[in-house]
Amino acid sequence: MTQLAPLPKVVLGSLAFGVFWMLAVFPSVPFLPIGRTAGALLGAVLMIVFHVINADDAYASIDLPILGLLFATMVVGGYLKGAGMFKHLGALLAWRSQGGRDLLCRVCVVTALASALFTNDTCCVVLTEFVLELAAERNLPAKPFLLALATSANIGSSATPIGNPQNLVIAFNSKITFLQFFFGILPAMLAGMGVNTVMLLCMYWKELDGASPDEVAAVKEMEAVEEGRSPAATAAVLALANINKSPAAVHGAAGLRLRRNGDGDDGEEESVMSENISTKHRWFMQCSEQRRKLFLKSFAYVVTVGMLVAYMLGLNMSWTAITTAIALVVVDFRDAEACLDKVSYSLLVFFSGMFVTVSGFNKTGLPGAIWNFMAPYAKINHVSGVTVLSLIILLLSNLASNVPTVLLMGDEVAASAATISASAVTRSWLLLAWVSTVAGNLSLLGSAANLIVCEQARRAQRNAHDLSFWSHVVFGVPSTLIVTAIGIPLIGKINI
Fold first, then answer.
1. What is the mean pLDDT of residues 397-424?
2. Which residues neighbour 228 within 8 Å (Cβ) at sequence distance 6 or greater?
3. What's the whole-number mean pLDDT along residues 221-248?
4. Statement: residue 489 has pLDDT above 80
5. Where do the H-state alpha helices sit in 138-246?
6. pTM for the complete prediction?
7. Are 453 and 128 within 8 A, CB to CB?
8. Higher per-residue confidence, 117 vs 275
9. How would you classify residue 344: left for phi > 0, otherwise alpha for psi between -120 and 50, otherwise beta?
10. CB 404 within 8 A of CB 411
């Protein structure tokens, strides 16, 4: 049974966590506008300075597998983007699209299904900027699509052990097989995905009207004019460049010069032959480069599928992703600095600071004290007990994050369910996975996926949008409560 730490440690630990939480929610507060990343580091430093956690424990609390997985997926995502994977996905999303509402539904479905296989963090890393571009092309607001991406990624990731880090912890500790986990949560995931999509449509129905094709074309023309060019002039330049690059045009120009000058002298003939040889050499190099790019694209798809298969076989997710990333770097056979520069290192630093801060907050004993008080009322064989347990998980997942909540409560919840039946133990683990994952949609700080979407959207080169804490809460709170409640009765209905 978890005991509260001495009062000074509880107060100072809560103060440090409060500083972290405030700066994560309000990264530009007037009296300390240092941002989320520096705020996370400040919270971690305060935990050590206040002796809430010692330096060794602070370093040990940094979850390197999660950081490694996040880093590697950013690298793999960069290569997949270069291979055109997300352009194909965009074509799928935009194919015969019936407007903003139809596009929003497609984003929800595709994101949820992909998150179950690629993890929610991965999908948010590689899809955020892409979804922003889709919205910009149709003159649609960014916020509904960012909310759709973040919330659907969390809901979809609940269905598999590889969907998110807390599910990995649950699958390892509970010994539940991949198929048991998948079919145990699948009905809840599908129902939650549908309900979440309907709520998005209802809340942002009018904003999803978008613009007519003529209006979109006018906006693009204005953008072109602002850049100092006209669409017609740009098209003419590109057409002329393509003509000049073609071997046939070069040969035609050489023949025209010969015809103008008669038979020509020997110097002119040698010049023409030299030009022809140079043209053939350039054409050969272009063909070689095209074959190289085709090979790299094919290799990127193959190793990504291999990575997913390795996940399903139970191999270490972090090292599997890192191995995949390094394989892509080596086969690319070029300096990887350009690709590595696209990794959001500030996001990795933010998570490092958050791990230390959350670990220090757990050492105060406050999260454990909440469970000790509520445990007698959280029996899984009663509707009231399931309700109380779900509320506890929701609260702790948003205060101390979902992974520490699972680590803290998993064994206690399973032990309590073991007094009922063996099947109740399995259902308790699945219930913990479902509620702790969907709880991530409650607020911007509820899950890593939310923070990734927020940071990626803020730094996007096109259609950048700052998804604020309150704009997320307005939709996140009702969505989380309703989706969680609808999914709970469906947990464990399919037994394998």
1. 81
2. none
3. 44
4. yes
5. 142-157, 165-174, 178-203, 213-226, 231-245
6. 0.69
7. yes
8. 117
9. beta
10. no
